[in-house]
Design a protein that fits this description.
The complex is a heterodimer of chains A (661) and B (333).
Chain A (H helix, E strand, L loop, with lengths): L1 E3 H7 L7 H11 L3 E4 L2 E4 L6 H4 L2 H12 L22 E2 L9 E8 L9 H9 L7 H13 L4 E4 L7 E6 L5 E3 L5 E3 L5 E5 L2 E5 L3 E2 L12 E7 L2 H11 L4 H8 L6 H16 L2 E8 L9 E3 L2 H7 L5 H10 L3 E3 L5 E4 L10 H12 L20 H15 L3 E2 L5 E2 L26 E2 L4 H10 L1 H5 L8 E16 L2 E12 L5 H12 L9 E5 L2 H7 L5 E7 H7 L31 E10 L4 H12 L3 E12 L2 E10 L8 H19 L2 E2 L1
Parallel strand pairs in A: 4-7, 18-21
Antiparallel strand pairs in A: 1-3, 2-3, 5-13, 5-14, 6-13, 7-10, 8-9, 10-11, 11-12, 15-17, 16-17, 19-20, 21-22, 22-24, 23-24, 25-27, 25-28, 26-27
Chain B lengths: L5 H17 L3 H11 L5 H7 L6 H29 L23 H15 L3 E3 L4 E3 H4 L10 H5 L4 E2 L2 E6 L5 H9 L6 E10 L11 E11 L4 H16 L4 E9 L2 E10 L9 E9 L1 H6 L8 E8 H9 L12 H4 L3
Parallel strand pairs in B: 1-5
Antiparallel strand pairs in B: 2-4, 3-4, 5-6, 6-10, 7-8, 8-9, 9-10
The chains are: A alpha+beta (661), B alpha+beta (333).
């Protein structure tokens, strides 16, 4: 929520801390807040939306944190509610969706002048545009107290019986913006003589809207069921300051103080005179008394907080503390809908005190070291085995494209997402191979490199999903391993045998494994010149047949890391250009020295160098290197590469008298 | 060296097997590998003589030689797994045979292993569960009944034809699964991780598929001071550096008090505080939902991003790299 520091300071006159300090204090004790000049932005957590989506709520929080007092804004004294005021009544059938509905009828309104400057400034600080003075006042009180309200031009209302009900089918409303909507089913409408005049809790209709010519106001200050408001707002894709607050839930007890504040401002700014009040409030909110054991604070925080400190903390947050009984009886202020039990009060005490006062206490030694699940241990063994054999592990997202037909294992209908992020990827995968194939295509340049660091094979261990029976009703979710191997030497049979051997199982179950070469058509599609082999194994079934692998519990001392973690290096998205270079030098020349010369002369376009052949013959040494030219920001032209390559040749010739082959 | 014949090949094979039988530790295993299977090992050296044989004989000897090599490699692999559990208790990666380059473990796997080792050493029980989960485990049991705003706020993936199931939005589903279906009773300490799914716009720090880790301790006295200790131990061991931890108030439906855990060390840029995880005292309603009496037991829980850990550990700038399948990325780790 956007907040004005000056407004807060008005409400907490003793505040001397800077905006930055206030933001820091709120962050460490309430919720994350940032300051920019005299403006603050507080990220109010959902549980505090009931009471702190307002300057007064935040001011009360600040006052508690800094041990100051709040200067409550001036308010009018309202007459007692009546059943009817000048013919206006309220008739609401179902109280569950409208816990409270209050009207104030006001006359002699002079709305034909602009809002006072101070009001406009504050609306601006809250990110709200001015409309006309009466509407501005309702928005001002919303930003100040957190309670939304709506003003009707009483003379433009179709009837004098005000009600709130669920919308009839195809009921229409036109807003001030000109936008017309059909109210969704179970959406609430405020009606006047049974004609809809507002989308309850969200926005008023244009027909009865207040204009500069308005003389008589029917003010609505109400409370609505949060879920209904939220659902309606979401369905219509509307988001107003009112709908946000009602959607999170407000206490109906806030209605009367807000009405009193509104009336005060209407009286003083537009000269309004109160004719009377009607108030539908069939089940008034009762104070919620919580039994509280002060020892619970230490039990949760691990730090001693004295009874005096606890009492002080709760009182400063406007809770009524009765510590004369055991347990204590604590009464939160009505707007604190989030405080329902002892655990909530413990949080209030600890956060007001200092969360970082909590000490560090080691957990007791475990009673026993439980065995790790067999599947997890087998998975680690399999991964190690594959990596030892030169395969590189990849992780792919489990969403599959809609044009994919499951090729292996099962042709049962895949599971479909109702709300995929990308409509084209709306299935959950039934096999790991399609995404590995996509990885192959993306990596074809790397696979075709001659460097020994080229990737030779990829593997993934992950879940596949189908309809069927499993841990969750209707779903068969299983763990698979899949690998794609590149090149002539690729041998899936050997790999599968090694895996079975690791499990100490014999290979005899065909429906656990699928393996074979990719067809020429597939290879062409993936743009590979060399043979490709694939395999996929249902690991869950192997785990079921296998025993339990050994596991030794590590000790904390043994966990010091042996070598530092490798750090990521940005790699180029542009293709590298490969050249080989071979030359003959005197036998006493080292390959390392030659490589140094090459690297130096090749800067900055030379990205990688690798020695791939070396032999001695008749007092001379023959050396051959793979070179890769590449930059981070563009594809190199052959002219650029030739220039760099020639520079390297020259350097070799000059410095070590290389005879280029 | 003896000339290459079927007999000399068989003899060498027998000797290699016998020697392998004597191997009982990692060092001896490595020495055996170098001696028999390495680039200059006895078997490759013997087989190089194949070029001196008459053409007609080469195929038979070649096949026998390859079969022998594979046989020995198989036994070597098996033995390697048993012997080379390192001090951390998990199987070590054996050096690549024949000098070929080893492949690479994904950085998320590496991060997970580090985390798993630490929690195993602290006596935590590791549990796992499905990605498609009952909505009751994902929301209701975690104090998010159907009309709770947090439920609507979460960008959940839903499944056609399965109104009571979701793609889990956090691994906290394991709390219900481990306790209610696994018959777990307090006192316990559990650690779990896995893929989680959110239907939200992707960018450098958000992916629709990501990985979380979480732990939970329930006994009669565990509280936020123990949480702080576990967190301190975990992050300092994980990053192999001294770390400072701070708590800030926050809100999650399943804990009360709820907090954010920030970390600061030389890994974080400019010595700033970095948000690492959400945590708190387990909400009494959650304990009740798990069939645990909140008057007798209390709990702590913490959940964070495994992707974030991997990104901090390896200085990876964009989460989407982790799911890119790009070999230029994967081979760096």
């Amino acid at each position: 929520m956007k907040l004005s520091y000056n407004w807060l300071k008005d409400l907490v006159p003793g505040l001397t801390a800077s905006p930055a300090d206030v933001a820091e204090k709120l962050t460490m004790h309430s919720f994350e807040t940032t300051a920019k000049g005299k403006s603050l932005e507080a990220d109010i957590t959902p549980n505090r939306a009931h009471d702190t989506l307002s300057h007064l709520g935040i001011a009360r929080e600040i006052a508690a944190l800094y041990e100051l007092s709040v200067q409550e804004p001036a308010f009018a004294s309202l007459p007692a509610a009546q059943t009817e005021v000048d013919g206006f009544t309220i008739a609401i059938d179902d109280a569950s969706h409208t816990p409270r509905y209050l009207n104030v009828l006001l006359q002699s309104v002079n709305n034909n002048k602009p809002s006072p400057h101070w009001l406009k400034t504050r609306l601006d600080a809250g990110g709200v545009r001015p409309v006309n003075t009466v509407v501005d006042i309702t928005n001002y009180v919303l930003l100040e107290t957190g309670q939304p309200s709506h003003a009707f031009d009483a003379d433009r209302l179709p009837g004098k019986t005000m009600s709130v009900r669920e919308a009839a089918p195809n009921e229409r409303l036109t807003f001030l913006s000109g936008e017309a909507i059909t109210v969704p089913p179970s959406g609430l409408v405020v009606t006047s003589g049974d004609n809809p005049v507002a989308l309850a809790g969200i926005m008023g209709a244009s027909d009865s809207a207040v204009t500069p010519q308005t003389r008589t106001l029917l003010l609505e200050v109400a409370n609505f069921h949060p879920f209904t408001i939220r659902q309606t707002a979401d369905t219509l894709n509307l988001r107003t300051e009112a709908s946000i607050r009602f959607g999170r839930g407000l206490s109906p007890a806030q209605v009367a103080p807000a009405a009193a504040r509104l009336v005060y401002l209407l009286q003083t700014i537009v000269g309004a005179q109160v004719l009377g009040v009607t108030d539908h409030y069939p089940r008034p909110a009762r104070p919620n008394v919580i039994a509280f054991n002060p020892a619970s604070v230490a039990a949760v925080a691990g730090v001693s907080v004295t009874s005096q400190q606890i009492r002080q903390a709760l009182s400063s947050l406007r809770l009524i503390v009765d510590d004369t009984t055991t347990p204590w009886q604590i009464t939160p202020p009505p707007e604190r809908l989030d405080l329902t039990g002892e655990h909530d009060l413990v949080e209030e005490v600890i956060r007001l005190h200092d969360l970082n006062d909590i000490p560090t206490q080691a957990l007791s030694a475990p009673v026993s070291y439980p065995p790790q699940p067999a599947a997890a241990l087998w998975r680690a063994i399999i991964r190690n085995l594959l990596v030892t054999r030169g395969l590189t592990e990849t992780y792919n997202v489990p969403f599959a494209p809609s044009n994919l037909v499951s090729q292996h294992f099962d042709t049962a209908q895949p599971i479909t997402l109702s709300n995929p992020l990308d409509p084209a990827q709306c299935y959950l995968r039934t096999s790991l191979l399609p995404s590995l194939m996509a990885n192959l295509r993306k990596n074809k340049d790397d696979f075709h490199r001659q460097f020994s660091t080229q990737t030779k094979a990829l593997f993934e261990i992950g879940h596949v999903y189908q309809r069927g029976q499993g841990l969750v009703p209707g779903i068969r979710e299983e763990e698979h391993l899949a690998a794609v191997l590149v090149g002539e030497a690729a041998d899936a049979t050997d790999l599968i045998a090694a895996i079975y051997s690791a499990f100490s199982l014999t290979q005899d179950d065909d429906d656990i494994i699928w393996a074979g070469p990719f067809s020429d058509a597939v290879r062409t599609r993936l743009k590979y010149r060399v043979p490709l082999t694939a395999l996929e194994i249902n690991l869950d079934r192997l785990y079921k047949r296998a025993g339990h692998p050994p596991f030794k519990v590590p000790t904390l001392d043994s966990l010091a890391q042996a070598s530092p973690a490798p750090r990521y290096c940005e790699f180029s998205r542009y293709p590298g250009i490969l050249r080989d270079i071979s030359f003959v030098v005197d036998a006493n020349q080292s390959a390392e020295q030659a490589q140094t010369i090459i690297e130096k002369a090749g800067t900055p376009l030379l990205a990688a160098v690798e020695l791939f052949d070396q032999f001695n013959q008749a007092g001379k040494t023959s050396l051959a290197f793979h070179l890769e030219y590449q930059t981070l920001d563009r594809t190199l032209t052959s002219a650029e590469v030739n220039t760099a390559h020639n520079r390297i040749i020259e350097a070799l010739q000059t410095e070590i008298k290389a005879h280029i082959k | 060296m003896a000339p290459l014949t079927i007999d000399t090949l068989r003899e060498l094979g027998n000797q290699a097997e016998a020697d392998l039988g004597e191997v009982s530790d990692a060092a001896a295993l490595e020495a055996w590998r170098v001696r028999y299977l390495g680039r200059r090992g006895q078997i490759p050296q013997l087989l190089r003589q194949i070029k001196n044989l008459p053409v007609g004989e080469r195929k038979k000897i070649g096949q026998a030689g390859n079969a022998l090599r594979k046989e020995l490699e198989k036994t070597y692999d098996k033995l390697g797994i048993i012997i080379k559990t390192d001090a951390k208790g998990l199987p070590a990666i054996a050096p690549a045979e024949g000098g070929a380059a080893a492949g690479h473990l994904h950085p998320l796997t590496q991060a997970l292993r580090r985390a798993q080792e630490i929690f195993a050493a602290l006596g935590f029980q590791f549990v796992e569960g499905p990605h498609i989960e009952k909505a009751v485990y994902n929301f209701d049991n975690l104090n998010m009944p159907p009309e709770h705003p947090a439920r609507a706020d979460t960008d959940t993936f839903y499944l056609k034809d399965f109104p009571n199931l979701v793609l889990r939005t956090h691994v906290s589903t394991l709390q219900s699964r481990a306790v209610l279906e696994g018959n777990l009773q307090p006192p316990f300490r559990i650690f779990y991780y896995g893929p989680t799914f959110r239907c939200e716009k992707e960018d450098a720090t958000h992916s629709s598929v990501f990985h979380q880790y979480e732990f939970m301790v329930v006994n009669e006295t565990v509280n936020l001071s123990h949480l702080k200790s576990i967190v301190q131990t975990f992050y300092s061991l994980f990053f192999d550096k001294d770390v400072a931890i701070r708590f800030r108030p926050s809100y999650f439906p399943f804990v009360e008090p709820g907090l954010e855990v920030d970390m600061r060390n030389s890994v974080t840029k400019k010595n700033a505080w970095l948000e690492m995880a959400g945590a708190g005292q387990v909400h009494p309603t959650v304990l009740e939902n798990l069939g645990i009496d909140p008057a007798k037991y209390q709990g702590i829980a913490l959940g964070g991003g495994l992707d974030r850990l991997a990104m901090l550990l390896h200085n990876i700038p964009d989460i989407r790299l982790l799911y890119s399948g790009n070999s230029r990325f994967l081979t760096q780790f």
